[in-house]
Design a protein that fits this description.
The complex is a heterodimer of chains A (515) and B (330). Chain A has 515 residues and is α/β, with parallel strands linked by helices. Chain A contains 19 helices and 22 strands. By secondary structure, chain B is mainly alpha-helical. Chain B is globular and about 55 Å long. The chains are: A alpha/beta (515), B mainly alpha (330). Chain A: This is Sugar ABC transporter ATP-binding protein.
Chain lengths: 515, 330
């Protein structure tokens, strides 16, 4: 091991933002032909470290060497040219251009100065064939799934003769098959001698593929470990820096709700044959006061669509919806908010938060909207509320005037939650509230959900992680191919394997509750 | 290996026309329909010279629309084009009146537009200001220059200009003007640039997603500045063609032309949000506008404002069409 030379070393990197020391003397070394996982909670400094590496940010101190030469990139463009390519979670390609062009734009094969389209398509086809992706390269990229787009992004990065490939949460939006496909490509690239930095929150994936792990916490380096020598539980401890008993405490918290008593009385919200053609097949689902209903299913199975129907974000074209037993037509989100329904979208950046506004303004937004703009919330009251929720949800940094876009993903999620919680909804719809956030924040959010339901709030909880759904929910509705296939009561007999089976086969032999 | 679900081709409609081609095809169909109506209604309409006249009368509009296509493809807008056309014509007329050599006048006139475009592009890029407001400033500026040169129309009597204006290039029994040929040449060059050069492809890239283009290492700033410079150049060429056509420079000519041009580009199928469209579509868009004009002229009883009414209606239809195609592909 010591004979090999690292392709990339970052030494004593520090980066200070106004009021925050984002990185403090962090080291990272990367060997050719390894997958190196970069782990840490939200706000630990992973993104900042990568942005420093690729030249998006300058460093305040510290050095970066690539192949022994000290480098300092002025931006992603220069980094890419030097062989350091990044593939982001949100695919940064051009949906309006063809697949082939997305791979070669900026480096198009040319003949007599003109772009040689035929050659470009041929090369693209070859390149994608190498990673076992057989698609029509002249089709627009935007017509393919996110997973394919991501693989095209990787193909592009690799073709630029990348020696260092940074994958920033590439698997967050992929389903299990797609993840397997991606991992296979990663292994192939690793065997070709490319050094891969893999940023993810999925521990299983880290253990499936990473050779080495660097852990960051609060902008500091915790350490560098060989994956084989670091048990999962130890990794989690290093990431959050405290004994991990939070999850166990959570289990006690959720056991409080007794399903039988919950089922009594009129359901808070009842969908009867509710559906929207082309979006989700008619389904029936009831949610009682204090009940957590989990919505499980693969990506694209219609989970979000169900939530959007409840919230009036999409208009149903079939069936009825009743709130407190009385039929209502929820035609738009305002109508839903009027009936105390709140919806935390899965795309917190594009559909939820206003990045330029401060934490305080974002939190107040929904409450202000509910009151109407003619009755502004007094500033004193705003400050009180915001202080309370920043503390209750431990939003970091605890600065109400910080623009939301400067917060890490987990903290943004908490801001979004706080916004809806101050409106005191009776039904809270959470769409992937824990996606892309670290285990600490995840635990906090799960605990919060449990507390809220104990307090009588009904929650529709959507998540791709079955364990999470099972831990929190009183009953689980399973979605498959845009249909609600069954409802499962979450008693002791229900486990992830059973739910998985339903998702896979679309039926359950026993234990299903008639809808 | 479970490559099948990933490799599956995206769904295609039965007609198998890629959605990105629908707007252009719709414009082509519309053009065909309108031309057929013309031919059916008026005997003289079937004369091929009618088509050539469209190019002769609207060559300058076509050239300016080509420049605008570049700008709109990046997701921008250039409101200065009409004023730059007028300014170019005014400057030419004024310099020619002062006895300057026509070749020199041509060079100066063709430089002014691109210089203004370059300056606006720099402001838009370096200060990150909306193109709308920057080119609005450019519009006022260029129009101001026109009236500063002269508040009245200046006739052009220069030999080169008059011969360029009056020379007829015969094609069989019919003829076209020098201006019409230049306009067609500009279309051809622009189409080639957009389809086969890096600059052209980068224009589409920026319109697709500027942030991504930046992260992919494409020269976003350079391309944006280039696009406004190209639009300025096209406006300058358009101004020269207009001065060929009218043999004068008038301070208030081509007022509101930028809106006609934008309408032509949009009717030609280019998305106002950028990233999708073709110069060929713009050509069709200009032809549609011109044919409407011609039809109304042939009718003789209709007020010429009917042109505007029809264009307004068409714009609505095409914007809706684009929206629907956009939703379909989602």
């Amino acid at each position: 091991m010591s004979e090999r030379h690292p392709v990339l070393t970052m030494t004593a990197i520090s980066k200070i933002f106004p009021g925050v020391r984002a990185l403090d003397g962090v080291d990272l070394r990367l060997f050719p032909g390894e997958v190196h996982a970069l782990m840490g909670e939200n706000g630990a400094g992973k993104s900042t470290l990568i942005k420093v590496l690729t030249g998006v940010y300058g460093t305040d101190s510290g050095t970066i060497t690539l192949d022994g030469d000290e480098v300092s990139f002025s931006g992603p463009m220069q980094a890419t040219a030097a062989g350091v390519s990044t593939v982001y979670q949100e695919v940064n390609l051009l949906p309006n251009l063809s697949v082939a062009e997305n791979i070669y734009i900026g480096r198009e094969p040319r003949r007599l100065g003109a772009v040689n389209w035929r050659e470009m398509r041929r090369r693209a086809q070859e390149l994608l064939a190498r990673i076992d992706l057989h698609i029509d390269v002249s089709e627009l990229l935007g017509n393919y799934s996110l997973a394919v787009q991501q693989m095209v992004a990787i193909a592009r990065a690799v073709d630029i003769r990348a020696r260092v490939l940074i994958l920033d949460e590439p698997t967050s939006s992929l389903d299990a098959d797609e993840v397997a496909q991606l991992m296979r490509i990663m292994r192939q690239l690793r065997d070709d001698g490319i050094a891969i930095i893999f940023v993810t929150h999925f521990l299983d994936q880290v253990y499936a593929i990473a050779d080495r792990i660097t852990v960051l916490r609060n902008g500091r380096l915790v350490g560098e470990y060989l994956t084989s020598e670091l048990p999962q539980i130890a990794l989690v401890e290093k990431m959050i820096g405290k004994e991990l008993d939070a999850l166990e405490r959570l289990d006690e918290a959720t056991s409080g709700g007794d399903r039988a008593t919950l089922e009594q009385g009129t359901p808070l919200v009842a969908a009867d044959g509710l559906g929207r053609s082309g979006s989700v097949a008619p389904f029936s689902l009831t949610i009682h006061q204090g009940e957590v209903v989990g919505l499980a299913g693969l990506l694209g199975s219609g989970r979000t669509e169900v939530a959007r129907l409840f919230f009036g974000a999409d208009r149903a074209d079939a069936g009825r919806l009743a709130v407190d037993g009385a039929p209502v037509a929820i035609r738009n989100p305002v109508a839903a908010i009027d009936r105390d329904i709140a919806f935390c979208s899965e795309n917190r950046r594009t559909e939820g938060l206003v990045g330029e506004l401060s934490v305080r303004e974002n939190i107040i937004l929904a409450m202000q909207a509910a009151r109407g703009w003619l009755r502004p919330v007094p500033r004193r009251r705003q400050d009180e509320l915001v202080q309370h929720w920043i503390k209750a949800l431990s939003i970091r940094p605890a600065d109400p005037e910080m623009p939301v876009r400067n917060l890490s993903g987990g903290n943004q999620q908490k801001v979004l939650l706080a916004r809806w919680l101050i409106t005191e909804p009776r039904l809270l719809i959470l769409d992937e509230p824990t996606r892309g956030i670290d285990i600490g924040a995840k635990t906090e959010i799960q605990r919060l959900v449990a507390q809220l339901s104990d307090g009588g709030m009904a929650v529709l909880f959507i998540s791709a992680e079955l364990e999470e759904v099972l831990r929190l929910s009183h009953k689980v509705a399973v979605m498959r191919d845009r249909q609600l296939v069954t409802e499962l009561t979450n008693d002791d007999s229900l486990d992830a394997a059973r739910v998985m089976q339903v998702i896979a086969s679309g039926s359950s032999q026993e234990g299903s509750v008639p809808a | 290996m479970t490559t099948t679900p990933l490799a599956a081709r995206p769904g295609r409609a039965w007609w198998r026309v890629p959605p990105r081609h629908v707007p252009v095809l719709a414009t082509a169909a519309l053009l065909l329909v309108m031309y057929s109506i013309g031919v059916a209604q008026y005997q003289a309409f079937s004369n091929i010279q009618v088509v050539f006249n469209v190019f002769i009368d609207n060559g300058f509009l076509l050239v300016v629309a080509v420049g605008m296509t570049f700008v709109i493809l990046t997701g921008g807008i250039d409101l200065s084009v009409g004023s730059v056309v007028a300014m170019t014509a005014m400057v030419s007329a004024s310099l020619l009146g002062n006895g300057l050599h026509p070749a020199l006048v041509l060079v100066i006139a063709l430089l002014l537009g691109p210089i203004l475009g370059f300056a606006m592009g720099c402001v838009i890029h370096f200060f990150d200001i909306q193109p709308f407001i920057v080119t609005l400033a450019g519009m006022f500026f260029a129009r101001g220059v026109c009236t500063w040169i002269s508040t009245t129309s200046i006739p052009i009597t220069d030999g080169f200009w008059t011969s360029a204006a009056q020379h007829r290039i015969h094609l069989g029994e019919n003829f076209v003007s020098v201006g019409a040929l230049i306009a067609v040449a500009v279309v051809a060059v622009a189409a080639a640039v957009l389809a086969y050069t890096r600059l052209g492809r980068n224009v589409y890239a920026i319109g697709g997603n500027q942030q991504s283009a930046l992260l992919m290492g494409l020269p976003v700033g350079r391309t944006k500045i280039a696009v406004y410079t190209i639009s300025g150049l096209c406006s300058a060429i358009g101004g020269i063609l207009l001065s060929f056509y009218t043999l004068s420079g008038a301070p208030l000519i081509a007022v509101g032309m930028e809106l006609d041009v934008i309408a032509a580009v949009v009717i030609g199928g280019t998305l106002l949000t950028g990233g999708s469209g073709y110069v060929f579509g713009t050509l069709l868009g200009v032809l549609v506008l011109s044919i409407i004009q011609t039809l109304i002229t042939f009718d003789g009883t209709l007020n010429s404002w009917w042109t505007k009414i029809v264009i307004g209606g068409l714009l609505f239809v095409f914007i809706l069409l684009q929206r629907l195609v956009g939703i379909r592909t989602k």
